Amino acid sequence: MGSDAISALYDSLTSQSKHTSVATILRFFHSVRVATQNASFSSIVSSFRGLYRNDDVNWGQVVLTTCVIAMTGCGLLSSLLRRKRSGLKYARAQRSAARNNSTKSSKILSSSSEEDYEDEDYDSNASLRHGTNPNYTKKDWPSDTQQQSSDAYETDPGILRKFTTYNSYTTSIATYPAIRTFYSPHPHLARLPTKPTPIPLIVVVHGLGGSLAQFHHLLTSLSNVSSCFGIDLPGCGLSKFAPTDWNAYTVEALSELLAEAIDQHRDREAGQEIILVGHSLGCSLSALLASSASPVGAKVKEHIVGLVAVCPRASPPSAEDTAKFRRALYVPNLLFDLWRRWDRRGGEQSASVMRMAGVAADAETRNLQMRFNKQSRTPVWRRMAWGTLPNYDNGGHAIGGLPGQEVWAGIRMPVLLVAGETDAVTKPVEVQKILKFFGDSSSHTTIDTSGSSIIPDASRVHDQMSPPSDDLVNEKAPGVQISEKHLQVGQRKRVVKSAILPAPASHALLYDRATYRTLAGIIQDFLSSNIDKRLGLGWQLQHMNTSGKWDVKNLAKWKKVTPVSERIANTFVALKMLREVDEEHNPTTFSAKYRGRIHAVIDISHESPVYNPAEMEKGGIRYYKHPTISKIPPDSGRGTRLHRFGQ
């Protein structure tokens, strides 16, 4: 989000100043801060002018301000008591651990003592699982070490849980002791070619206030064609809020952390390349790593071969806006939390949800957005937001903060820019600005997307989208504007494509049911067409079929199973796994035989299919993937979504 989110929040708090008390509190606090700095009696007196109107006491605002001050005192006292109790619990846990002579790896998490770590939206008694290591269970973790949301853990998607570990990373700026790290190797990585290099590693980067969970649907798709990697930035998602130094949360610091994490997980010996997929602020972090004009991330820069920027920001805020945002971020956590609660009034219909998901979002998307908003911790948000703001020199040049024209123009590789038509946080005009950084935007040409392949995903598109009338099941949203241009940069060819998804596409298009499937298809096409053809599912199927290794595990047993069962409850049928190389039970013959009788195939397996779902969709039968993981029961939310889909 970056400065756009700060601006939206600031405007929501200061609008209609004559009718809202929140704006009065903002002005009052800012006046008190200035008075304290100046240490003059006149400034202290002026700080109370907002409490008077026409020389008469405005008792309503006096009472409100008194209540706020009282709440602040209660909050500070409560925080001190909680920290004291937490310290006692932690000491007891440490003594118990010493008695048991327990040893803990470098990945074990430690407690944070930062007083503003506490956030009213978080359960300080929650715990986290230690990746997929069976030797670690929830009881092995001190109950107060994480101070993380139980909701964030309980609602964590299965694919993330399965491939999660907690790692410590050290950069030139700070040590981040417990970063939630996701690494999902391609299910058939050993069977794919490694010359001249392995298939590129796809790295996802979330934005301000976000987490890896927002990439759930996209990762479900992309993990079928490549190894995928990502981290929850410190204090976000399931990562620990440590360190608490504000310098550890600047754009440069977070980019360096990202580079260090990537370098530790890519196949360095084989020269594995990297593709960055960023959302919102994640686009800015990715741009710093990918650009030749940025010194950040030197150890991975030469290996980055592509960039996908979803809802990007083109440049830092102006000097005037930066000053305004800094004033808003001076507000203490307690008051900031009060403002956030005020902004969340109305639940799924609140301004905080509508700002991100859009007014046309369905109930499920709004519910997800409300959950993500609550999981975003105020002290972390303030630090990261502050880190996006630049300093301006006497010449008016921005130093630090969000990258601008120089950094974007220094990206010399295939780039895909995606925006939502109704995005109120990073508007589509940002994409047009970035395109101008690359050169003459008049050279763009429109390309046809109707033939793009559809890759497996976790759900369907928005209910309001009517199916196409032709034979091809086309999941692309109508009106998607995709353009491309080819620029010769030295000896390399730079391809820049842009896509503006139509309404209701918003800042939440990563997880909005109306858009995430379309987004996955666009990204998949871009990767296989412009970066590495081996990232195409069709190419991989052909390679595996040629080598005879991409197939069902037990062919003899598979042949004994009936291809399609009788109807179950007059609604469902059980389908034997299709085989791309089978003469009879393959996607093409299946769709030709059952089109009109079978509407869709719901694949609940976690593994990649041994056939190309796009071939089945061309025949008129839709394909949806709701992956489940062996030995991990699906959560109630997944069951509810599957039930809704069946209905």
From TrEMBL:
GO biological process, one term: antibiotic biosynthetic process
Location of region: Disordered: 92-154, 451-473, 627-647
Superkingdom field: Eukaryota
Name of this chain's protein: AB hydrolase-1 domain-containing protein
InterPro entries in the cross-refs: AB_hydrolase_1 (IPR000073), AB_hydrolase_fold (IPR029058), AB_hydrolase_sf (IPR050266), Prot-tyrosine_phosphatase-like (IPR029021)
Compositionally biased region (Polar residues): 125-136, 143-152
UniProt cross-references to Gene3D superfamilies, sorted A to Z: alpha/beta hydrolase, Protein tyrosine phosphatase superfamily
Listed GO CC annotations: membrane
Biased composition (Acidic residues): 113-123
Residues covered by the AB hydrolase-1 domain: 200-437
PANTHER family with a match to the protein in the record: HYDROLASE, PUTATIVE (AFU_ORTHOLOGUE AFUA_2G14860)-RELATED (PTHR43798:SF33), MONOACYLGLYCEROL LIPASE (PTHR43798)
Bias type Low complexity, positions: 92-112
